[in-house]
Amino acid sequence: MKMQGFTADDAAMERSPDQDGDIETGDVVNEADGAPISIGYGRWGPGATLTETMLVDDVMIILEGSLDVTSEGDTVSAGPGGIVHMPKGVEVTIKAGPTGARTAYVTYPNWRAARG
Predict the structure, then answer these.
(1) What is the CA radius of gyration of the chain?
(2) pTM above 0.90?
(3) Phi and psi dihedrals of 44, rounded to 5?
(4) Dihedral angle sign, alpha carbons of residues 21, 66, 86, 38
(5) Residue 18: C-alpha distances to residues 21, 23, 50, 79, 103 (Å)
(6) Could you read off the pLDDT of 9-25 as tens digits, one per residue?
(7) How confident is the model at residue 68 (pLDDT cuts 50, 70, 90)?
(8) Contacts of 108 (CB under 8 A, 6+ apart)
(9) What phi, psi does 59 have (nearest 5°)?
(10) pLDDT in tens, 26-64
(11) Which of 16, 11, 44, 14 is nearest to 30 (CA)?
């Protein structure tokens, strides 16, 4: 695999698996590229909420809007430039702010491979 650069326009956005909220993700690098990580972009509609137990270590960088991430009674609120790390095995609830959010993410290992 060679060095590459990406923008959000490079991501083929699709609804996140196993959820019906207004949330889309789009990998730009994943196992199909031979990478041990997934890198991509996310789009969260206004107030969209997702609760799940993390199958991978996930780092989200908030590019636009805001997200509240709650785990074990603690909430991290992040806006543009904020970074949230969600460790493997932790249950989280992620809620977009009133204008939604755009994010970039990196997971280890590949999140699709971890889903089986």
Answers:
(1) 13
(2) yes
(3) -115, 125
(4) positive
(5) 10, 11, 10, 26, 19
(6) 999 999 976 777 899 99
(7) very high
(8) 36, 37, 56, 57
(9) -120, 125
(10) 999 998 888 899 999 999 999 999 999 999 999 999 999
(11) 11
